Amino acid sequence: MVGAQFFCGMASVTANSRMTYAFSRDNALPGSRIWAKVNARSGTPTNSIWLCVGCAIVLASPALFNTTAYFAVTSVAVIGLYIAYITPVLLRRLNKNFVPGPWHLGKWSPVINWVAIVWVAIIVILFVLPPVADITIDTFNYAPIAVVVVFLLATVLWYTTGRRTFMTSAEQEHLTIDADKLLN
Hints:
mainly alpha
């Protein structure tokens, strides 16, 4: 179990740090200039990685001492990733003017997209349910509260700064190392 938790945690930090880097590259996070910096030696976004490791430690530490916190942390991790992955698919399905790119699933796209959307809805519902039948303050699943707080925070940040700064400049020096420089 420890090994499985470790590797799941590493996979989550890896995915999270890459998303943090990508959002920072597009000026979508507070402190984007710091988190989008690429390490000249390794070619990796180490600042973004350390940010995600630090946040993971802070957010997951209560789970070491409390099973309710453990259930909430694992639920939030699953719900957050699924919501992040399915949001573009849902927005694409809702946008009738969307023009597919060169790679798509052809006539199967709508069917596969809607199956994925329904699947994520089911998963999100399952992961917000309490882990036991008798709901008390110690057995309540706090994941829905955490997801709502993150959604509200993201909404406030979007309307206060994000829409003015998100993808406002074509290319900045703190973003990406040119492939020729990186490989030489």
